[in-house]
Design goal:
With 215 residues, this protein is mainly beta. The chain contains 2 helices and 14 strands, in the order αββββββββββββββα.
Protein backbone atom coordinates (compact mmCIF):
# COMPACT_ATOMS: atom_id res chain seq x y z
CA UNK A 1 0.00 0.00 0.00
CA UNK A 2 1.25 3.39 -0.62
CA UNK A 3 2.30 5.35 2.51
CA UNK A 4 -0.20 7.98 3.76
CA UNK A 5 0.80 10.57 6.35
CA UNK A 6 -1.31 10.77 9.52
CA UNK A 7 -3.80 13.58 9.52
CA UNK A 8 -2.70 16.69 11.42
CA UNK A 9 -4.29 17.38 14.86
CA UNK A 10 -6.82 20.21 14.76
CA UNK A 11 -5.57 23.54 16.19
CA UNK A 12 -7.07 24.52 19.57
CA UNK A 13 -9.91 27.04 19.27
CA UNK A 14 -8.88 30.66 19.67
CA UNK A 15 -10.31 32.68 22.57
CA UNK A 16 -12.85 35.11 21.40
CA UNK A 17 -13.15 38.73 22.51
CA UNK A 18 -16.50 37.93 24.13
CA UNK A 19 -14.91 35.38 26.46
CA UNK A 20 -12.22 37.80 27.56
CA UNK A 21 -14.80 40.47 28.34
CA UNK A 22 -16.83 38.00 30.40
CA UNK A 23 -13.80 37.06 32.52
CA UNK A 24 -12.90 40.72 33.08
CA UNK A 25 -16.45 41.55 34.20
CA UNK A 26 -16.55 38.62 36.62
CA UNK A 27 -13.27 39.71 38.23
CA UNK A 28 -14.53 43.24 38.66
CA UNK A 29 -17.75 42.06 40.33
CA UNK A 30 -15.81 39.83 42.69
CA UNK A 31 -13.54 42.72 43.78
CA UNK A 32 -16.47 45.07 44.35
CA UNK A 33 -18.42 42.69 46.60
CA UNK A 34 -15.49 41.59 48.76
CA UNK A 35 -15.41 43.03 52.31
CA UNK A 36 -12.08 44.20 53.73
CA UNK A 37 -10.89 42.30 56.76
CA UNK A 38 -9.32 43.94 59.79
CA UNK A 39 -6.24 42.66 61.50
CA UNK A 40 -8.18 42.42 64.78
CA UNK A 41 -9.36 38.94 65.77
CA UNK A 42 -12.81 38.33 67.19
CA UNK A 43 -12.81 34.92 68.82
CA UNK A 44 -11.44 32.42 66.32
CA UNK A 45 -11.65 34.47 63.15
CA UNK A 46 -11.56 37.91 61.67
CA UNK A 47 -14.36 40.37 61.50
CA UNK A 48 -15.16 42.71 58.67
CA UNK A 49 -14.31 46.36 59.12
CA UNK A 50 -17.40 48.49 59.61
CA UNK A 51 -17.65 52.11 58.48
CA UNK A 52 -16.67 54.60 61.19
CA UNK A 53 -19.64 56.48 62.60
CA UNK A 54 -19.62 60.21 61.91
CA UNK A 55 -20.53 62.45 64.85
CA UNK A 56 -23.43 64.77 64.09
CA UNK A 57 -22.71 68.50 63.94
CA UNK A 58 -23.47 70.27 67.24
CA UNK A 59 -26.83 71.99 67.23
CA UNK A 60 -26.98 75.70 68.10
CA UNK A 61 -27.96 76.51 71.70
CA UNK A 62 -31.65 76.91 72.23
CA UNK A 63 -33.41 79.61 74.19
CA UNK A 64 -33.25 83.42 74.02
CA UNK A 65 -29.95 85.28 73.78
CA UNK A 66 -28.70 86.85 77.02
CA UNK A 67 -30.25 90.31 77.47
CA UNK A 68 -28.07 93.35 77.76
CA UNK A 69 -28.15 95.27 81.01
CA UNK A 70 -31.06 97.67 81.31
CA UNK A 71 -30.55 101.40 81.58
CA UNK A 72 -31.52 102.71 85.00
CA UNK A 73 -34.90 104.45 85.01
CA UNK A 74 -36.55 106.49 87.80
CA UNK A 75 -39.10 103.79 88.60
CA UNK A 76 -36.25 101.35 89.32
CA UNK A 77 -34.59 103.68 91.82
CA UNK A 78 -35.18 105.31 95.17
CA UNK A 79 -33.72 108.82 95.47
CA UNK A 80 -32.46 110.66 98.51
CA UNK A 81 -30.92 114.13 98.68
CA UNK A 82 -29.60 116.22 101.53
CA UNK A 83 -27.03 118.82 102.42
CA UNK A 84 -23.76 117.55 103.78
CA UNK A 85 -23.52 119.12 107.26
CA UNK A 86 -19.71 119.20 107.39
CA UNK A 87 -19.11 120.36 103.83
CA UNK A 88 -20.36 123.80 102.87
CA UNK A 89 -22.03 124.18 99.46
CA UNK A 90 -22.23 120.39 99.00
CA UNK A 91 -25.33 118.24 98.66
CA UNK A 92 -25.27 114.45 98.35
CA UNK A 93 -27.64 112.68 95.95
CA UNK A 94 -28.09 108.95 96.55
CA UNK A 95 -29.88 106.38 94.39
CA UNK A 96 -30.67 102.78 95.34
CA UNK A 97 -31.79 100.09 92.92
CA UNK A 98 -35.11 98.76 94.24
CA UNK A 99 -35.80 96.53 91.23
CA UNK A 100 -34.92 92.84 90.81
CA UNK A 101 -32.45 93.32 87.95
CA UNK A 102 -29.15 95.10 87.37
CA UNK A 103 -29.24 98.46 85.64
CA UNK A 104 -26.51 100.76 84.39
CA UNK A 105 -25.78 104.46 83.92
CA UNK A 106 -23.70 103.82 80.78
CA UNK A 107 -26.00 105.80 78.46
CA UNK A 108 -26.19 108.85 80.78
CA UNK A 109 -23.29 108.67 83.28
CA UNK A 110 -24.26 111.70 85.39
CA UNK A 111 -27.64 112.96 86.67
CA UNK A 112 -29.36 115.75 84.79
CA UNK A 113 -30.35 118.17 87.55
CA UNK A 114 -32.87 120.97 87.11
CA UNK A 115 -33.12 123.78 89.68
CA UNK A 116 -35.85 126.35 89.21
CA UNK A 117 -37.57 127.38 86.01
CA UNK A 118 -35.33 130.19 84.78
CA UNK A 119 -32.41 127.94 83.80
CA UNK A 120 -33.06 126.33 80.38
CA UNK A 121 -30.83 123.28 80.75
CA UNK A 122 -29.49 120.89 83.38
CA UNK A 123 -26.58 121.58 85.71
CA UNK A 124 -23.26 120.72 83.98
CA UNK A 125 -21.02 117.89 85.21
CA UNK A 126 -17.58 118.11 86.75
CA UNK A 127 -15.41 116.67 83.95
CA UNK A 128 -12.67 115.27 86.18
CA UNK A 129 -15.14 113.31 88.32
CA UNK A 130 -15.85 110.72 85.62
CA UNK A 131 -15.03 107.19 86.90
CA UNK A 132 -13.04 104.68 84.87
CA UNK A 133 -16.17 102.68 84.00
CA UNK A 134 -19.88 103.53 84.03
CA UNK A 135 -21.60 102.61 87.27
CA UNK A 136 -23.81 99.51 87.23
CA UNK A 137 -26.30 98.93 90.03
CA UNK A 138 -27.26 95.39 91.08
CA UNK A 139 -30.47 94.95 93.06
CA UNK A 140 -30.14 96.91 96.34
CA UNK A 141 -26.98 98.55 95.03
CA UNK A 142 -26.33 102.26 95.66
CA UNK A 143 -24.62 105.02 93.67
CA UNK A 144 -23.78 108.61 94.63
CA UNK A 145 -23.45 112.03 93.05
CA UNK A 146 -22.23 115.20 94.74
CA UNK A 147 -23.89 118.51 93.91
CA UNK A 148 -21.78 121.66 94.30
CA UNK A 149 -24.64 124.00 95.05
CA UNK A 150 -22.76 127.29 94.80
CA UNK A 151 -19.34 127.16 93.19
CA UNK A 152 -16.90 129.85 94.28
CA UNK A 153 -14.98 131.88 91.65
CA UNK A 154 -12.16 129.66 90.41
CA UNK A 155 -13.46 126.76 92.51
CA UNK A 156 -14.22 123.15 91.48
CA UNK A 157 -17.09 124.27 89.26
CA UNK A 158 -14.61 126.08 87.04
CA UNK A 159 -16.81 129.19 86.64
CA UNK A 160 -17.08 132.54 88.26
CA UNK A 161 -20.27 134.28 89.34
CA UNK A 162 -20.17 138.10 89.14
CA UNK A 163 -23.56 138.24 90.88
CA UNK A 164 -25.22 135.53 92.88
CA UNK A 165 -28.54 134.09 91.76
CA UNK A 166 -28.74 131.65 94.66
CA UNK A 167 -32.16 130.52 95.84
CA UNK A 168 -33.45 128.11 98.42
CA UNK A 169 -34.54 124.76 97.01
CA UNK A 170 -36.61 122.20 98.88
CA UNK A 171 -36.87 119.96 95.81
CA UNK A 172 -35.36 119.70 92.35
CA UNK A 173 -35.70 117.64 89.19
CA UNK A 174 -33.54 114.62 88.35
CA UNK A 175 -33.56 113.14 84.84
CA UNK A 176 -31.61 110.02 83.84
CA UNK A 177 -31.80 110.62 80.08
CA UNK A 178 -32.14 113.59 77.78
CA UNK A 179 -35.60 114.65 76.63
CA UNK A 180 -37.30 112.90 79.55
CA UNK A 181 -39.44 114.40 82.30
CA UNK A 182 -37.36 114.90 85.47
CA UNK A 183 -38.43 113.10 88.62
CA UNK A 184 -38.96 115.47 91.54
CA UNK A 185 -36.67 114.73 94.48
CA UNK A 186 -37.22 116.41 97.84
CA UNK A 187 -34.44 117.52 100.14
CA UNK A 188 -34.34 115.72 103.49
CA UNK A 189 -35.42 117.03 106.90
CA UNK A 190 -32.42 119.35 107.29
CA UNK A 191 -34.42 121.89 105.31
CA UNK A 192 -33.98 123.55 101.92
CA UNK A 193 -30.52 124.09 100.53
CA UNK A 194 -29.20 127.26 98.96
CA UNK A 195 -28.45 126.66 95.29
CA UNK A 196 -27.11 128.96 92.61
CA UNK A 197 -28.22 127.32 89.32
CA UNK A 198 -25.80 129.49 87.31
CA UNK A 199 -22.69 128.16 89.09
CA UNK A 200 -23.81 124.78 90.44
CA UNK A 201 -22.24 121.57 89.14
CA UNK A 202 -22.66 117.85 89.71
CA UNK A 203 -20.31 114.89 89.66
CA UNK A 204 -20.68 111.79 87.57
CA UNK A 205 -22.31 108.85 89.34
CA UNK A 206 -19.82 107.38 91.80
CA UNK A 207 -19.72 103.69 92.82
CA UNK A 208 -18.99 104.33 96.51
CA UNK A 209 -19.38 106.94 99.19
CA UNK A 210 -15.60 107.19 99.47
CA UNK A 211 -15.32 108.07 95.79
CA UNK A 212 -18.04 110.67 96.16
CA UNK A 213 -16.22 112.18 99.15
CA UNK A 214 -13.32 113.21 96.91
CA UNK A 215 -15.48 115.96 95.39
Amino acid sequence: MPFRPAPASPAPPRRTDAARRARTLAAALLAATALPLTACQDGGGYRAALPRAVSPAPSPPSGPAPRARDACTPEMLRFHAGAEPHRARHMLLTVTNISDRTCTFAAQPYPLLHFGDHRPGPVPPLPYSRPHAPVALPPDGTAYAVVLTDAQPGGPGGRSAPRSTAEKASQFGVALAERTTPAQVGVDDHGPVRVDPDTAAVTYWQPSLADAGRW
